[in-house]
Design goal:
alpha/beta, TIM Barrel, 2 domains, 8-stranded parallel β-sheet, 16 strands, binds zinc ion
């Protein structure tokens, strides 16, 4: 089932930039790997996937998420607040209400949104590993991603101390000792990490926010432990002015320079957000190959600012796209992330700030590079067959002179006909075959009511 030919491709995007950005014809997959692209004839008995009426793209790579937040959308106390209010009234108030069933449901909702918008690789920064849970959230995450058949990066995160919040009736922060966190990272890496370029599961060390949630020496210790295990590192950095001001106040330097001092830069690191970076910081990151997980949707929703992704990209920096946790933006689909990235930079930088092909590159090849999937992210011979067919038979795409880029520049939901990971189907005929969406919606609504009733009140 992992060998087939995709025929009738009129509108193909490779994930590459420049003259190689587009292709037409057919694409042959053998044993899960793309072997030929171009003017091909199906062999006798070769299985045919018809791409007429679709745009064919690489599977999208989401480099920053918090799947446990998928049942925390539109919490009233967060809607008109910024990052701090949202963190307090969203994840930090509701984490004790996530039993194993709620966690599994939340991860399923999040992955369903992603799969149905053409995502084939997901990186999740999970940082809630409290003693109070009688289950392992990491196991739930890895198992659920495997059920969808998506490539998954388990960001085994955590915190050694919470921040002092102005809200005083919150449950205690789900902190661990550094030793417990590092033991958790090592156990996850030993159990699941596959270093190969087309792995189904990788593990990364991902403290939630090094600047706020680790002590100074601990930041360097995490880096050393991750490198000893041969895994990547990821955290939130410079998401808004508060990050920058507090780092400058405490350490006398800007966040990227401080992280460089803690051994937290290099080609094995990617940072979420990087909204508030000066050119010097961007240049440093571009030079050493540290990638940006650009999350425009959540940055806009929380009023954090607009990350300098085009400037970083122009310096040779690796830009990828992330949706960020859905309690920060009420949706977690890559269609929205692509459209936000396409439009928002034009609003401040003019129409030359982004192109559809550049945004596609960030969402695919850029993401694969950020996460270390060397065989993923572009449609070219030798790469894993992670690909998506997006339907054009919807009124919002009618009237286009260049339908190939219609799904990116018209915005709205992607209607994915089929998607594949390593040639194995994830979305088939517009749905995830084993997933009952109606039941998922009913279960989510019921569980949200349970979580509201159980919400912590001091
Ligand atoms: Zn985040």
């Amino acid at each position: 089932m992992t060998s087939f030919i995709v025929t009738g491709i009129e509108h193909g995007l490779t994930g590459m930039r420049g003259p190689e950005a587009r292709f037409q014809g057919a694409l042959r997959v053998e044993e899960g790997v793309i072997t030929e692209i171009g003017d091909l004839t199906p062999a006798p008995a070769e299985r045919i996937i018809d791409a007429r009426g679709c745009v064919v793209t690489p599977g999208f790579v989401n480099t920053h998420h918090h799947l446990f937040q998928s049942l925390m959308k539109s919490i009233p106390a967060t809607i008109n607040g910024g990052l701090d209010d949202w963190v307090m009234e969203g994840p930090y108030r509701f984490w004790p209400t996530l039993d194993e069933e709620a966690m599994r449901l939340s991860v399923t909702v999040g992955l369903a949104e992603l799969a149905l918008s053409g995502t084939t690789t997901v990186s999740d920064l999970h940082y809630i590993f409290p003693d109070e849970y009688d289950y392992d959230p990491a196991e739930v995450l890895v198992e659920t991603a495997a059920r969808f058949g998506m490539r998954f990066v388990l960001g085994r995160g955590g915190l050694t101390h919470g921040r002092p919040w102005h809200q005083t009736d919150l449950p205690p922060a789900p902190a661990e000792t550094l030793d417990a966190m590092l033991a958790g990272v090592e156990a996850a890496a030993t159990r699941w990490h596959d270093p190969s370029g087309s792995a189904m599961v990788k593990v990364a060390a991902t403290p939630v926010t090094t600047v706020f949630n680790l002590r100074e020496g601990e930041v360097r210790e995490v880096a050393q432990a991750a490198r000893a295990l041969g895994i990547r590192m990821h955290t939130h950095l410079s998401e808004n002015d508060t990050y920058v001001n507090s780092t400058v106040e405490r350490f006398g330097m800007r966040p990227v320079h401080w992280m460089a001092e803690q051994e937290w830069v290099g080609p094995d690191v990617w940072f979420a957000h990087l909204v508030k970076c000066d050119d010097d910081e961007l240049g440093l990151l571009a030079d050493v190959g540290t990638a940006m997980a650009h999350c425009p949707q959540s940055n806009l929703r929380l009023g954090s600012g607009i990350a300098p992704a085009p400037a970083f990209s122009a310096m040779g920096g690796i830009v990828s796209l992330g949706v960020d946790g859905t309690s920060a933006n009420e949706a977690g689909d890559m269609a929205q992330a692509l459209y936000s990235a396409f439009t928002v930079h034009r609003g401040i930088g003019g129409p030359a700030a982004t192109t559809a092909e550049t945004v596609m590159h960030w969402a695919t090849a850029g993401g694969a590079r950020a996460l270390g999937f060397d065989n993923v992210g572009t449609l070219e011979p030798g790469r894993a067959a992670d690909l998506v067919l997006i339907e054009l038979a919807h009124p919002r795409y009618f009237g286009h002179h260049d339908p190939t880029i219609a799904p990116i520049i018209s915005g709205g939901e992607f209607h994915v006909r089929h998607s594949f990971v390593g040639g194995r189907p994830v979305v088939v005929d517009g749905g995830v075959p084993w997933l009952d969406v109606e039941k998922l919606g009913a279960d989510a609504a019921r569980t949200v009511e349970k979580m509201k009733a159980a919400a912590y009140v001091a």
